[in-house]
Write a structure and sequence with these properties.
About 65% of the residues lie in helices and about 0% in strands. With about 650 residues, the protein is an all-alpha fold. The chain folds into 4 domains: about 130 residues; about 120 residues; about 70 residues, Methyltransferase, Methionine Synthase (B12-binding Domains), Chain A, domain 1, CATH 1.10.1240; about 180 residues, Orthogonal Bundle (Lysozyme), CATH 1.10.530.10. A two-stranded antiparallel sheet has the order 1-2. Helix 21 runs antiparallel to helix 22 and helix 32 crosses helix 33.
């Protein structure tokens, strides 16, 4: 079967799947509409359900609507699979230079890639401004490969987040395998990454490229120990499958996986052994087990994922092995090594070696950056964290153009309709054209319209002209002060948490149902209300600002008390539940800096959350107290339960 035929077949399957969405109920065109905004919402809904009939009806009724570009977009979006290239191109020409034209180009490029129309794809792809779609990057690689270019390295750089793969990237893998640019070893590397990330649908698709039965892949995920009761067979596929299975076994029992690898080690080659130990080391590292350190040493020479590179370093950090930490960072790809996280920890490793001057240079390179590791680097170089010199306030003359800007006004219209996706698209599209003063003026426009999340996000983008009143707002100050004072709670920390939780969106609601400024889960709200003796509490009260603050701060105070007064532990508990930080603390063999505890949190979301909350809190404290602050002091020392944190117990790097 030719590669061209295979690609055509894949495209047909993809397109058939896309066209199979059920049409929206025809009743939507019969309902009565309060106004044109109501009708527009119905048009949008019809478009997302591929209901071309109702979309045409609604669009025809909106001929005079104030945002015609989106009316036209949703009309085409409803029949996109049947739209001609000429119709799509005409839309883009009509609204050239707009955010929605770029969105339409994104949709079009996706179709062109699926259809294998590389000539038109290559014409349009350089014109895609936002350029944030990984599927299109994969199609662009296929287009190069079709022309005979060598693209394997570029392709591998796109394939480092298996849960985010889609049809474009899977098609790329298939094409590169069929044309010889990807070897069997490359596909097995992708398989190990899929297994490592629990991406079973991707593993099933990769399994087809490796001629593995679907049942074997299912067993690999569900009952991996059943695959190898007698170890791997004497063939390459069996040995590679054994290595992948070790990671699944290690997910529940790293010791069992290590015993299996040791037992059958002689059946594997050097590369397979290293990869096997890396699979075990990563799962052991997630569990914060001290044995992970030895597993990583035995994994030397393995092909590592992005996660594995970083967790090798985190394991060294967790166990206090500065030499291994330095080696682990040095072995990282350039994009990881140059991340502020690993610049900071490389500086710490050098400092532990006594290379203070080299360390100081690394710290100086990130100390002016307004984030967690920028703050810590500043402290390592002997300074505290303060508030930048205030920039000139935005004048009425600077604000006036923002109030007349059609794209920003379009965004404000969408925000008023609670269409945040469309609003953010229009808002961010316009920001691309702005200098720093204009960013601050746009942030001021957001403040004026009570869009504090947009104000923070927009102001955060400036580097030289910095306005902390925009970046770190303090709404509901009176209520917050009264509540935190009554509890003896650090108000700077509470504001830091809210900034991370909801960005001050009063009606914020998460995918899991958390509500309001402090993003409180319904069950948590009921529990706290009961503990506080609020007998008449009803669920809808959680969206009342004062009630949300009272419930959120009381819960935060409860977890802070439960976790020994550590803001690092309590912040983690607020995000992941109190049981998890207790378990992570129990894995410590010695007291560690709060920064080390934070960097070795096994959950990506919680790790980033704690960093952001405490970084925010440090800046808020500097604003409130009008004096420099210490993030290190705020992070404190995290000690195993029942162990003293006296100086006699602390390692040397904490005493410094």
């Amino acid at each position: 079967m030719s590669v061209k035929y295979q690609l055509a077949q894949i495209s047909l399957v993809i397109l058939a799947g896309l066209s199979a969405f059920p049409a929206a109920c025809s009743a939507s065109n019969k309902r009565s509409f309060i106004n044109d905004d109501d009708r527009f919402m119905a048009l949008r809904d019809a478009a997302y359900h591929d209901d071309a009939t109702n979309a045409d009806i609604h669009a025809s009724a909106l001929e005079g609507y104030e945002i015609p570009s989106y009316v036209d977009y949703y009309r085409i979006r409803a029949h996109l699979l049947k739209a001609s290239n000429a119709e799509i191109a005409a839309f883009i020409t009509k609204y050239d230079g707009s955010a929605i034209a770029d969105r339409m180009r994104n949709d079009w490029l996706s179709l062109l890639g699926k259809r294998g129309n590389w000539e038109l794809f290559d014409q349009q792809y350089p014109l895609f401004v936002v350029a944030d779609d990984n599927q299109l990057r994969c199609y662009a690689v296929i287009s190069k490969a079709v022309k005979g270019q060598k693209v394997s390295t570029e392709a591998k750089n796109l394939l480092n987040a298996p849960r985010d793969y889609g049809d474009g990237c899977y098609t790329m893998v298939t094409y590169l395998k069929d044309t010889g640019q990807f070897t069997q070893a490359d596909i097995w590397t992708q398989m190990r990454m899929a297994v490592e990330n629990g991406a079973q649908p991707l593993a099933q698709r990769l399994g087809k490229l490796l001629d593995l039965p679907e049942k074997k892949i299912s067993t690999l995920f569900d009952k991996p120990e059943k695959l190898f009761k007698k170890g791997p067979d004497n063939n390459p596929s069996s040995r590679e499958l054994f290595v992948a299975a070790l990671g699944r076994i290690a997910k529940s029992d790293p010791t069992e996986a290590a015993a299996l690898l040791s037992l059958y080690s002689n059946r594997l080659n050097d590369e397979q052994r290293s990869n096997g130990w890396a699979q075990i080391a990563l799962q052991s590292a997630f569990k914060l087990e001290p044995e992970a350190l030895a597993y990583w040493v035995r994994a030397d020479g393995a092909t590592l994922s992005t996660d594995a590179y970083q967790w090798r370093a985190r394991t060294a950090l967790h166990e206090g092995d500065w030499k291994l930490l330095k080696n682990a960072i040095n072995a990282m790809p350039a994009n990881l090594k140059n991340d502020p996280t690993w610049i900071y920890w490389m500086g710490r490793a050098l400092k532990a070696e006594g290379k203070a001057d080299e360390a100081r240079k690394l710290f100086a390179g990130i100390a002016d950056q307004i984030h967690f590791y920028g703050q810590l680097a500043l402290e390592e170089n002997g300074q505290k964290i303060g508030v930048p010199i205030a920039t000139r306030p935005i004048t009425p003359d600077e604000l006036a153009p923002m109030e007349k800007n059609p794209n920003l006004q379009r965004a404000l219209k969408f925000y008023s309709m609670n269409l945040r996706t469309e609003g953010n698209r229009e808002w961010n599209w316009e920001l691309r054209k702005f200098n720093e003063r204009q960013h601050l003026a746009a942030a001021e426009l957001a403040r004026k319209n009570n869009l504090l999340d947009r104000m923070v996000n927009t102001s955060d983008r400036t580097k030289n002209e910095v306005d902390f009143s925009q970046r770190f707002p303090t709404p509901f100050n009176e209520s917050m002060y009264k509540t935190t004072q009554a509890l003896g709670l650090d108000m700077a920390w509470v504001y830091g948490l809210i900034r991370q939780e909801s960005r001050f969106i009063m009606t914020a609601k998460s995918q899991v149902g958390a509500s309001g400024l402090m993003q409180i889960m319904p069950a948590t709200a009921r529990y706290v209300a009961k503990k506080m003796g609020l007998d008449n509490y009803v669920a809808t009260q959680v969206n009342d600002i004062d009630t949300n603050i009272v419930l959120g701060t009381n819960y935060l105070n409860m977890v802070l008390t439960d976790l020994g007064g550590s803001q690092a532990l309590a912040s983690a508990a607020y995000n992941a539940g109190p049981g998890r930080p207790r378990a992570w603390r129990a894995k410590l063999s010695r007291p560690v800096e709060g920064a080390i505890f934070t960097e070795t949190i096994p959950f990506n979301e919680t790790r980033g959350y704690v960093k952001n909350v405490l970084s925010n809190a440090t800046y808020y404290a500097a604003l409130f107290e009008k004096k420099p602050q210490s993030l290190k002091a705020r992070l404190g020392i995290v000690v195993p339960k029942g162990m003293s944190a006296s100086d006699a117990d602390l390692p040397d790097e904490i005493k410094q």
